[in-house]
Write a structure and sequence with these properties.
- The complex is a heterodimer of chains A (240) and B (293).
- With 240 residues, chain A is mostly helical.
- Chain A is built from eleven helices and no strands.
- In chain B, a hairpin with a 5-residue loop joins strand 2 and strand 3.
- Chain B has 293 residues and is an alpha+beta fold.
- In chain B, helix 7 runs parallel beside helix 10 and helix 12 crosses helix 13.
- Chain B contains 14 helices and five strands.
- Classes of the chains: A mainly alpha (240), B alpha+beta (293).
């Protein structure tokens, strides 16, 4: 019988195979984690849930492996469902670069909005969200995992913070009254109302590619605003 | 000694090229530690091809990795706990709560917030004695904070099942009685997210909002205000999950929610409440006359 006093490191070695077995079962049930996420799920389970597992485990009721398996299945399934939805909301920076802009004659995004007001909205974001937002927006071809590591967090947590950051900024998107109507609608749909890009396309009534292009323009507006914040002499020297 | 990453990358390339190759599974099992390390370190750019793998192929690959990492079911006891973790029976209230927390809530953009808002607008709160009793119910205990929030209006995750099943059974009876022609799509017509009626192409027959609400109230034992809130919320949530209404898939088309029959019904809530397989379809049709795009 497994020693319930296993350290985190030894438990990771002992139960990692068990967790991939759980991921296999979940995938066969329609809850498939992509391999990149699979590694993160195993890692995050040990980081986030292991202490609670050890505290609650009762050897009279089940073997530790059985308990760990059940706990991991519930942990992973929740995360898989949430991640699949969030993935549809956010685009990897590399993907955004590959998108083609539908209108080369459109005014540059920075010219369409009051950048100072948007900069003010960014400046009052919680520090963790601002840091994540700045790093993610300015990453050229860096992967989410690389950005997450630089910030000392998991990819999942990175996405969570990005969603929160965009949500907060979305509250300020009412200031985007002079941007093209489609861009404003997409910003509200995705950042305020938390629709995926495909759902936004359906609600607004335009093809998904136009929504993706509008989202890319909005992303550049945020990036320009962050650059303005970065250059601002009023910042107290805190890193982005 | 660790194999170089290029060796593992070659294995990955072969997996993506022909995931059904049985010989690859043996190689995956042999190189499981290296493959797991590679997946842990590799950028997502390199893993784009995995998205095209069918779920069953991915499952076999993970199973091979598990064996390669030393998973032994007899020793680690996982196999004996399989079924309850993967079958959330509508007749088992604890598993209803688990499915609610683990699958339904993460799949929905706003969770139960719209339902709670609608309940506040249409009905009063439940008596405190009832709320206290419901808090002890196994589906509420297992369902987390969102399940606990339902209790304010005398609801639990089980009520969501009862409400959606009430609608589904009513539709089945209507189809069986030829009130709606079999095999035709059905549509919930809505105004401002409120269900007005359900109709079917090829017939003038309808189920009104009151018909559907009364069915929910009779099955779920709720008052009319709560019944209306449940009707609107289950319809609104249905395009985002596989089969909110047992035996029917839903998709959104403008403000209309279109239902089509599934090959089979399922009593497993993990299956019914998992996210719908495809994103909402572009608006290409409406089965009700006069609908605008």
């Amino acid at each position: 019988m497994t020693d319930p006093k296993l350290t985190l490191e030894s438990a990771y070695r002992e139960f990692r195979g068990l967790m991939f077995r759980a991921l296999a079962k979940l995938a066969s049930q329609g809850f498939a984690a992509q391999p990149a996420d699979a590694a993160d799920l195993v890692h995050d389970f040990f980081v986030e849930a292991w202490d609670g597992i050890k505290a609650r485990f009762d050897p009279q009721r089940a073997a530790l492996g059985t308990y760990v398996y059940a706990a991991f299945v519930r942990f992973a399934r929740r995360r898989i469902v949430r991640t699949s939805r969030q993935r549809a909301m956010l685009l990897d920076p590399a993907e955004l670069i590959r998108l083609s802009d539908e209108s080369s004659t459109a005014a540059a995004p920075e010219e369409e909005i009051d950048m100072r007001r948007l900069a003010a909205a960014v400046a009052v974001l919680p520090a963790a969200e601002r840091a994540v937002l700045y790093r993610w927006v300015t990453a050229s071809r860096a992967s989410e995992r690389q950005v997450a590591r630089e910030l000392g967090t998991s990819r999942y947590e990175l996405r969570q913070r990005l969603i929160e950051a965009f949500g907060h900024l979305g509250m300020a998107v009412g200031m985007l009254k002079d941007v093209p109507e489609l861009d404003r609608k997409v910003a509200l749909a995705v950042w305020r109302d938390k629709f995926t890009l495909a759902e936004a396309a359906l609600r607004i009534g335009v093809p998904p590619q136009r929504v993706r292009n509008a989202y890319a323009r909005n992303q550049r507006r945020v990036e320009a605003c962050l650059a303005l914040v970065h250059r601002s002499p009023n910042r107290k020297g805190e890193s982005p | 000694m660790n194999k170089p990453d290029n060796h593992v990358e070659e294995l990955v390339r072969r997996i993506l090229a022909d995931p059904a190759d049985e010989r690859l599974l043996a190689e995956i099992e042999q190189q499981a530690p290296e493959l797991a390390r590679y997946l842990d370190r590799a950028d997502e750019d390199r893993q784009v091809g995995w998205h095209d793998l069918p779920d069953d192929q991915l499952a076999r690959i993970y199973a091979a990795v598990a064996r390669g990492l030393g998973y032994v079911p007899e020793e680690q006891g996982a196999a004996s706990s399989d079924d309850p973790l993967f079958i959330a029976s509508v007749n088992d209230r604890r598993s209803v709560g688990c499915a609610f927390a683990d699958v339904l809530m993460p799949a929905l953009r706003l969770g139960i917030v719209p339902l709670l808002k609608s309940c506040r607008q249409r009905a009063g709160t439940a008596p405190e004695a009832l709320q206290q009793a419901l808090r002890d119910e196994p589906d509420v205990q297992a369902g987390g904070d969102e399940a606990a929030a339902l209790v304010e209006f005398g609801l639990t995750p089980a009520h969501l099942v009862l409400a959606s099943d009430a609608v589904a059974m009513h539709l089945e009876r209507a189809i069986d009685a030829n009130y709606f022609p079999p095999g035709r799509e059905l549509a919930f017509r809505r105004t401002a997210d409120e269900v007005q009626w359900l109709e079917c192409d090829g017939t003038d027959n309808r189920l009104t909002r009151r018909d559907l609400r009364d069915e929910i109230c009779a099955v779920a034992l709720t008052d009319p205000g709560i019944g209306e809130a449940l009707l609107d919320w289950t319809v609104d949530a249905s395009p985002h999950v596989h089969a909110m209404f047992d035996g029917f898939a839903s998709r959104l088309s403008h403000e209309t929610v279109v239902l089509s029959a599934l090959p089979s019904a399922s009593r497993n809530l993990y299956e019914r409440w998992k996210p719908s397989g495809s994103l909402p379809m572009p608006m290409t049709m409406s089965i009700a006359s006069g609908a605008s795009r």
